[in-house]
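Human:
Care to share another protein and its fold?

Assistant:
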Amino acid sequence: MRALLDTCTFLWLALDPKRISKLATELINDESVELMLSQVSVMEIVMKFRTGKLPLPEAPHLWIPTRREFFKLEDAPLSETIILRSGQLPDVHNDPFDRLIAAHAIESSATLLSPDSPLSSLGASRIW
């Protein structure tokens, strides 16, 4: 199984793991599950940190790579195919980061680990 962590799931995993559901925690701890972090999440974190909306223990360029390595999260690069797919998703949720993350999960044949139920309405498989 491939699992793509939503941005909030990654942040909670690294900063406040008790906020993650029992099922998502089980999947994260299952070594047979391939865990991925989208470059969309990296971009979202960097932008929110830069505007002061997201405090982190250190700057994203230092913090994210260490957390990715610690939790054994594969880098999931953003591609033109993912960007184009995000524009073809249903008009039920307009947050651009969420649309890109849902498209990324669909294009990667991955299940999203996310509490954000609107992502399911975009067509992404989601577990929480």
